[in-house]
Amino acid sequence: MSATDFVLGIDIGGSSIKAAPIDPACGRLKAGVRAISTPEPMSRRQLVAAIVELASEFGRPVAIGIGFPCTVQQGRVLTSDNLHPEVAGIDAEMLAQATGHPVAILNDAEAAARAEMRYGAGRGRTEKTLILTFGTGIGSSLAYEGAVIPCEFGLLPLHGGFAEQYAAAGARTREQLTWPVWAARVSEYLALVETVVQPELIILGGGVSAEHRQFFQHLKHRVELVPAALGNEAGIIGAAAQAMGLLSGAGCESTASSRSSSSRRLKGIRT
Q: Which pLDDT tens digit goes with each residue over 185-236?
């Protein structure tokens, strides 16, 4: 690969789609993040068109990695979650044909976890690590000795509902909670996952991690807790890292040419 080659990372969220070119050698952004606002859920045709637009924004990527906030298995999006119902069924092969580039797809929380473990706060750490992303919901993955496993710890029961309904960053915004009040909820959630998972390190990420100085001092936790180093760009970087496997032939989970699985939310649990 030449010094000008790049992998495009795309992070699809409920309110925007973000993309940036990533240097495959070090995981750093080669240009600023480009975002497309999605105040209303995009249909499948609109979403694919937006991905094609972003794919051509920066030139010609050697591969594209895309993170979806949905269940992704065997290179296919199985659920729509907070996106348009038509998003379910999109697959890597379809997107590769639309963009003209090799495409890898995976769950967005897994993408963020892979980025943090490879380039960010978890770099060089091999102990059992829980990576949590606080946004509209709570994404989660476990990392241990180099392996990253997507999980669903945001769906643990807490106060009669899903934990993420009570403690996600979206709950703070929706209920207009102060930082200390929200931090108390997060502390309850941390106590729960510490008991269930028994991690040795917790990395707290998502967009809210950029404001960790507002609430970290209010958190109660038993194990080491650190803010994510890559912030809201982790999903972009991790998606690109997944696509890098297409270039080497290794680590090609959820691609147009290789089939393994990653998971997010189970269809029917939540709409």
A: 999 999 999 999 999 999 999 989 999 999 999 999 999 999 999 988 999 9
Domain boundary among the residues 107, 131, 150 is at 107
Q: Which residues pair with 225 in a beta bridge?
A: 202
- Determine, yes or no, domain membership for 267: no
**Maximum Cα–Cα distance across the chain:** 54
Structure tokens that stand for 175 in this block: 């209920």
CA–CA separation, 62 and 190 (whole Å): 40
In a domain, 271, yes or no: no
Structural domain range at position 96: 7-107
pTM: 0.84
- Decide: 36 and 14 in contact? Cβ < 8 Å: no
Provide the token pair at 174: 């929706």
Number of domains, the chain: 2
> 204 - beta bridge partners?
132, 227
Gap between the Cα atoms of 59 and 54, Å rounded: 10
d(CA 236, CA 253): 16
Asked whether residue 49 is domain-assigned, the answer is yes
- How confident is the model over 17-38, as pLDDT tens digits? 999 999 977 889 999 999 999 8
Nearest to 112 by CA among 100, 120, 103: 120
Compute the distance between CA of residue 221 and CA of residue 191 in angstroms, rounded to an integer: 7
Q: What is the CATH number of the domain that holds 171?
A: 3.30.420.40
